[in-house]
Amino acid sequence: RRVDALTGRGVLSRAMAALGAYRCIECNREAAELYRDYQRGVLRISICKSCQKPVDKYIEYDPVIILINAILCKAQAYRHILFNTKINIHGKLCIFCLLCEAYLRWLQLQDSTQNIDPDDLIRYAKEWDFYRMFGIASLEQTSFLVGILITLWWIRPEMLKTKSDLILLLKALLLSSYGKLLLIPAVIWEHDYTPLCLAFIKVFVLISNSQAIRVTLNLNRMLPWLAIFFGLVLENGVVCLFQKMGWDV
């Protein structure tokens, strides 16, 4: 099973090795390869020259185990996903999370403005409300990300000196927002404690974002939280602006 798992990643391994994109999941040092193929089915996981540990033990793990470790916010799992795999679902994941958030807000808005009139105009107005909530959620998410990037650039400008660094950080932040998918069961199993569930989901997403920043830029624990704080400040500023405009967010 171990041989099959490693062999299935052969093409991706050679492509990423050519780009020098590997990282040791333990010490975050660059690595030339994840494993070495000795032919005839003989494969051996590479050992990091810095920490003397396997460069990436997760290459022989099942995806479910990797996901569980990511949910537990283990730095090793985050490094495996961000540096040693090629995942391009961050854009689709972001859109889906925004749709979930917009639907939840739209549902709460409908509950506060009950209207049983079947008139087409009323139905079109409700549909427009959903689009409006999606736009507001998108602007809030953008403000949050911009606040984080501005803070990190202001404190440590050398960390985001290239376009690839910026793209990698944005990808990490979008992927680490997967916790917003928990909004779906929160809506399905609606009960009196829904606001408390939403608060827990928000905290979990922020913890994941902090870990993603820390792993991507190899920082201590304090600076990511500082960047997230300013991101939340900017996001709440956008919310206050919408409220002053008379919009229900």
Describe the protein in words.
The chain has ten helices and four strands, in the order ααββββαααααααα. The chain is mainly alpha-helical and 249 residues long. The chain folds into two domains: 8-69, no CATH class; 87-245, no CATH class. The strands form two sheets. It has a two-stranded antiparallel sheet. Strands 3-4 form a two-stranded antiparallel sheet. Helix 4 (75-83) packs across helix 9 and helix 5 (90-112) packs across helix 7 (163-175). The model is unreliable at 1-7 and 9-19 (pLDDT under 50).
Tell me the distance between the termini: 51 Å
Q: What order do the SSEs take from the amino end to the carboxyl end, as H and E?
A: HHEEEEHHHHHHHH
Roughly how many Å is the radius of gyration? 22 Å
Low-confidence region ranges: 1-7, 9-19
Number of helices: 10
Largest sheet: 2 strands, antiparallel
Mean pLDDT: 81
**Order of strands across the biggest sheet?**
1-2
Protein structure class:
mainly alpha
The global form is: globular
Number of strands: 4
Q: What's the helical proportion of residues? A: 55-70%
Total discrete domains: 2
Strand content: under 5%
In short:
The chain has 249 residues and is mainly α.
